[in-house]
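Q: Structure tokens for this one, please.
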Amino acid sequence: HPDESPITLMSAVLACATHAFSYRLKRRAGLNVPLVGNGMVIGTDVLARLGWRAFSICEDWEMYALLTAAGVTIAGAPQARVYAQEARSLSESWTQRQRWTAGRLTVLARVGRRLLTSPHASARQKLDAIAELAVPGPALHLGAALLLGCCAAALHPPPVAASGTTGSCIWMRSSSAEGRRTTGGGAIGAGTPASHRCTIGG
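A: Here is the predicted structure, written as tokens:
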């Protein structure tokens, strides 16, 4: 239900981008697609040969790592439709993402070495799988981006316009024959470098 809240809408957009674009690009590059807990299918021949050995809090990520280390190909099914109830609030989403991140890191600690030393996975497949398990989710990315943005704004505040005016920089080009051009109440000289020209409104 993407329309339940802004959080469910963001989750729907992320899921669409992941399954419709990211995972398709992975398959075109010859890389395994991560398993999704509420929408994965494993063949009986694979289970008969390897069994089910994933018992962590993120069994889908653990099985993804184990199958990748064993050289089993994992492909997406973009035509399939799987529906699930997403977290409705930020607090619910935060708890969920914390659990998923902890689960991935647990899988990395348990299976990472086996994955890196596997003779059945290529070097780029190993690198991609390790990145999938180690990189934090989009919620942490957003939090880090906001924190860094606030720090940058605090350490390097934007310049203050002259008293009684407001300013906004624009990129313009003009030949020396154009002379002076007035824009938004301010004058722009033709000899001024394009990267330093600003309009000033009263």
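A few notes: The mean pLDDT is 76. Strands lie at 166-169, 180-183, 186-189, 198-201.
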